Amino acid sequence: MKKIRFIAVLSGFFLIFLSACNAAETTKISLAEVTRSLFYAPQYVALEKGFFEEEGLDVELQTTWGGDTTMTALLSGGADIALVGSETSIYVYAQDSRDYAINFAQLTQTDGTFLVAKEPKPDFTWEDLEGSNFLGQRVGGMPQMVGEYVLKQHGIDPHADLDLVQNIDFANIAGAFASGDYDYVQLFEPTASVFEKEGQGHIVASFGEESGKVPYTVFMTKQSYMEENDKAVEAFTRAIYKAQQWVQESSAEEIAEVIEPYFEDTDLEMLASSIDRYKSQGSFATDPILDEEEWDNLKAIMKEAGELPVDAPYGDLVDTDYAERVMTD
To answer: Which superkingdom is the protein from (predicted)?
Structure first.
């Protein structure tokens, strides 16, 4: 009887030892996303399908609501990796930071906003915007810069031809449009479709279709973190690539079912239609590589908006090594 107890005790210690080893092999990563959006569907797929766990990562997601707060979290150590517009890395670089943010995996490759009108516009043309009361986005942020770029392509000066309002926080823009006296606004999904369903707005154009490919939302981390956690960054990139492939091969309905826990206030049918809208215009990057042509397009958009502080070199702020490694595994 004592022998049996002794063996049981040994077995218990062995299980505890194995658990401790497994815990030791798991790397915790704090991930900050700039907002909660269907635009980031592959990220939520990576979380829900267990792709991060397969790579030995314990990823904790936080929504930091806005480019400034997201970069503050990253640079201060409040987050290890940030999902945010790649323009923010250029702003940090321009401040002569010694430990600037490096873009290592692209998630979205078009603008993710849609032009929403307060009233139905069955025969909409861009000229309809002239003289309108337009609720804009944050100065220097990607939605606003891409919006201005597209408007200028259609011969509209956003600061001269519109009554442009830009004093509303990002998180409150949708509510301000619904309750305020505005004619147009840029909205992400699923908010744009929800507004349309509820009769609070009408989608009349896609900024993503109009602006072409751009590194709109990218995973980035500090140089120091990358140097000290090379394997973790590679594992993170591999999990994202798995998710990108899964999203590419799956239907909008399948994707919606997987990521539904992140959008509890939106019904499944609405999620699926919004995801389909993004898929059909090629918004989700199919691999993590941010190429130089996209980077140059980003800088052209920033320059057109008067927001490019320095001519940030692609080789300084973009690292495609991780993406290339995981794509050749």
So the answer is: Bacteria
Straight-line distance from the first to the last Cα atom of the chain, in angstroms, rounded to the nearest whole number: 52
Question: What are the CA-CA distances from residue 112 to residues 37, 41, 274, 324 (Å)?
Answer: 9, 12, 11, 25
CATH H-level, domain 113-211: superfamily: Periplasmic binding protein-like II (3.40.190.10)
Tell me the domain boundaries of the chain: 29-110+214-327, 113-211
Superfamily of domain 29-110+214-327: Periplasmic binding protein-like II (3.40.190.10)
Q: Is 83 helix (H, G, I), strand (E, B) or coil?
A: strand
**Alpha carbon distance 262, 50 (integer Å):** 15
Q: Which phi and psi angles does 217 have, rounded to 5°?
A: -135, 125
Note the pLDDT tens digit of each residue in 229-287: 999 999 999 999 999 999 999 999 999 999 999 999 999 999 999 999 999 999 999 99
Average pLDDT over all residues of the chain: 92
What pairs with residue 31 in β-bridges?
61, 81
Residue 328 amino acid letter = T
